[in-house]
Design goal:
- The protein has a single domain (about 1-270), classed as Nitrilase/N-carbamoyl-D-aminoacid amidohydrolase (4-Layer Sandwich), CATH 3.60.110.10.
- Helix content is about 25%, strand content about 30%.
- The chain contains six helices and 15 strands.
- It has a six-stranded mixed beta sheet. It has a six-stranded mixed beta sheet with strand order 6-7-8-10-13-14, covered by helices on one side. A three-stranded antiparallel beta sheet has the order 9-12-11, with no helix packed on it.
- The protein starts with a strand and ends with a helix.
- This is Nitrilase-related carbon-nitrogen hydrolase.
- One of its GO terms (molecular function) is hydrolase activity.
- It comes from Streptomyces solicavernae.
- Keywords: Hydrolase.
């Protein structure tokens, strides 16, 4: 499976321009025989949506999105999704002009300078899904910081975890070094869930934030097998051996015994004690 990491900038609120940027990267990836192009979180809309007048969200089956996957490779693109009654921070996987799967961000940061709850509703489901190349799951940015979600995705059979992200610096004085945290976090996920991890972060500036890039791919042993540069746009192509997931899980079966009954009992107990 050949994946292209499209580490791009975008223009806040300008869907047409961002679609053109996406198409340009997809065509370049197609020339390199990529099977899939992965874009950052909200790559078609931008992040600071509170400063955009009006509603610019689009449904996940908008024909303009479907058209992106008619150039050869499949596409995973981030968007402000129009869910009719509600709006979501979503990532849609497109193949042959058809949306195969849409993941709606589950955990919306709403602290320091992040105010996603003002602009999005949280999603309500995490599902692995079959692509023409592998079984996969998507975790949008802060979803990957919730330890239970990568585990659930792996238990649902995911061999590849896509992590489209808008990770920036400058949003809050004295905040953590997000690049350092992501390095440790991605290593942890790849090693414990024994799968491929595809992290694609944005670059550029928007509002107070500077997005740092550093997109990368980790194998099921936790080794970084490809990495994009910091702070500039880049298209990075890498080959994934999907059979390596099964080999790793057989040689060290860390996720073989999930104990769903135990987990279910303890979750029900915590809920009965008033935790939701």
């Amino acid at each position: 499976m050949r994946i292209a990491l499209a580490q791009t900038d975008c223009v806040l609120g300008d869907l047409d321009t961002n679609l053109k940027t996406a198409e340009r990267n997809i065509r370049e990836a197609a020339e390199q025989q990529a099977d899939l192009v992965v874009f950052p979180e909200l790559s078609l809309h931008g992040y600071a949506l509170g400063s955009v007048p009006g509603d610019i969200s689009v449904p996940h089956d908008d024909p303009r999105l479907a058209e992106l996957s008619r150039h050869g490779p499949d596409v995973l693109a981030g968007l402000h999704e129009d869910g009719r009654l509600r709006r979501y921070n979503s990532a849609v996987y497109l193949s042959g002009g058809t949306p195969l799967h849409t993941h709606r961000k589950l955990y919306l940061p709403n602290y320091l300078d992040w105010e996603e709850r003002k602009h999005f509703s949280p999603g309500h489901a995490l599902r692995a899904f079959d692509t023409p190349h592998a079984r996969a799951a998507t975790l949008i940015c802060n979803d990957a910081w919730q330890p239970v979600l990568p585990w659930l995705a792996a238990q649902d059979g995911a061999e590849v975890l896509f992590v489209p992200t808008n990770s920036g610096v400058g949003l809050a004085p004295g905040a953590i070094d997000t690049a350092e945290y992501w390095q440790s976090l991605l290593l942890n996920i790849a090693r414990l869930q024994q799968c491929w991890v595809v992290f694609v972060n944005r670059v550029g500036e928007e509002g107070k934030a500077t997005f740092w890039g550093g997109s990368r791919v980790l194998d099921p042993w936790g080794e970084v097998v490809a990495e994009a540069p910091r702070d500039r746009e880049a298209l990075t192509v890498v080959d994934l051996d999907i059979s390596a997931v099964r080999r790793r899980r057989r040689e060290m079966p860390l996720i073989e015994e999930p104990r769903f009954g135990l987990v279910s009992r303890e979750v029900r107990r915590l809920m009965s004690e008033g935790v939701d």
